[in-house]
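Lab notebook, bench 4. The sequencing result for the construct came back, and we need a structural model before the next group meeting so we can plan mutations. Quick request posted to the team channel:

Model the 3D structure of this chain.
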Amino acid sequence: MFDSSDITQLRAIDTLKAVIGNRTAVYTLLFIQAGGSGYANQIAKTFGVPLNSVQRQLAKLEDNEILTSRMIGNARIFEFNRRNSTARNLSQFLQAELDDFPQELVRRYFSQRQKPRRAGKVIEYVSEELRQ
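Done. Here's the predicted structure in C-alpha cell form:
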C-alpha cells in the first residue's frame, strides 16, 4: 500500500504535477512508464487514490491518443501509444524523471506484477509447509 510520506517528499512529483496537471495523472503515467503497462485497479490500489479518478485519467489519456488499451480477461490494460510522437516523447521524459527517483521508491511503487492473475488459477506451492 502507498505511504504518501514516501513519494510526496519528492519535489519531482510537485514539478510533474505542475506540468501534467494533477497528481493522479502523474502517478498513472509514471506507473505505466515504469512497468510498460498497467490497469486502473492496480494503479488506484498502489497509490491509494480513488479508482474512478484513475479511470477518468486513463480514459482522458486514451481519448487523446497518449495511451492505448486492450482487454486481457476482465482487465483493460493500458500502455503508451508508440504510434503517437507526443506519447513517445512523453514516455522518454517520464523515463528520465524515473531515473532520477530513489531506486527504492521505484521498486516499491512502480515495479509490480503487471498482469492480473487469471480468475480461478490454481496457485502451486513450493513446499508442503505452505499448503497448511
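The first strand starts at residue 67 and ends at 72.
Will bring this to the meeting.
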